[in-house]
Amino acid sequence: MKLWQNVKQVYKTLQYYAAVTNPYTGSGYKSMKITTSRNVGGKAGNTLATNETIFSAVSKLSNAMGSLPLKLYQDFTPVITDESDLLSNSPNLNQTSFDFIRTLEALRDTTGNSYAIKIYGSNYQVESIHIVDPARVTPVFEEKSMELWYEIKGEKDKYYVHNLDILHFKHIHGFGFKGISPIDVLQNTIEFDEEVRKFSLDQMDGAKASFILKYGTNLSEEKKIEVVENFRNFYKENGGILFQEHGVEITPLEKEFISTKVFEVERITRTRVASVYNLPVHMLGETEGHSYGSMEQMSLQFVKETLLPIVRQYEQEFDRKMLTREQRMQGFKYKFNLKALLRADTATQMEAYFKGVRSGIYTPNETRAWEELPPMEAGDKLYISGDLYPIDAPLEERRGRGTTKGGGE
Questions:
Q1: Residues with Cβ < 8 Å from 252, sequence gap 6 or more?
Q2: Roughly what angle, to the nearest 10 degrees, separates helices 97-111 and 42-50?
Q3: How far apart are CA 116 and CA 128, in angstroms?
Q4: If you write DSSP's letter for every residue of 209-259 in order, what string do you get?
Q5: Cβ-proximal residues to 180 (8 Å cutoff; 6+ apart), any chain
Q6: 213, 250 contact by CB (below 8 A)
Q7: Which whole number is the average pLDDT over 327-338?
Q8: Percent of the chain clearing pLDDT 90 (strictly above)
């Protein structure tokens, strides 16, 4: 009897994590079973697994997003709530925050859209967040209420989830609510790249060594056939080793197994993939025609032109759907820390800290925290040079100011 109760309890727990409870009274929105996604499937998944240029682009973007620290702030102070802990550490029983955000970004960069559904507990608090297979989700606009819903194809039925219960991250799109798949945009490039590679491989597989045989005397047709046959058999039986006899000249014919045009195609592919994913082309291994003064400049370009719009989308989606209006009015907001990607070399970084602390921009403890060092006593005050005293110190207490014992300045 006790065993059966344990089995039922396990079943209820699994059912709970695959259900959504209605937070909207009277909406007819009911508990449902949702099929979640474990990996990228279909055409997008196949392309990701067979095209190294696209794999590299998606890896760069998804790893960058997954690596960014995410925190909830009230004004400028980090705070921790149950919901922020989910996003910052473990959104569900099976994923870390890194894996969760990286998977969302990988799906967005292949299918054009990624979705995660909020799972509520009995007190209508978000208990977990699960990624949903993009192939099963369709945004639906309800004209009467002027609200967006999401149609999800379950194993046996279709379910409708309100837009506030679905985190939706998408690529650029026109009219409507569904992002355009970068894989679809790159389809012609992918097919052309595949054909060129296949042609080159076929050339390599079908390539045979060729030679010119020169004899010092004239030979009859029968003798020529006999010489060629003997040469072929000897070459085959001895693993390609040849012995050049006196009076016989053997000259191998050189062949280009891979045309230089293949490398031109690869360069074009890298450029087009970088263009579609809005990536600096050097991040895909293309260095020709690109020069940067420092690694800092390269990182700055990637952050400003590529990551900033993506980060902004994630932050606004979290703010809108993981916070109440009252929380937003109180100054709560989610924020990714992009400073980790903008760190310069040690000398430049120390110079920036030095100037920032002496100018009253940073506190010493803030710079210590960025270097993962423990805070120091009195390190939370702002200082300005003169030389270094608290910014709120009276003028007469500042070094070099006020009246001296001799009465002078």
A1: 209, 210, 211, 212
A2: 100
A3: 10
A4: -EEEEEESS---HHHHHHHHHHHHHHHHHTTT-----TTEEEEEEP--SS-
A5: 112, 171, 172, 173, 174
A6: yes
A7: 93
A8: 32
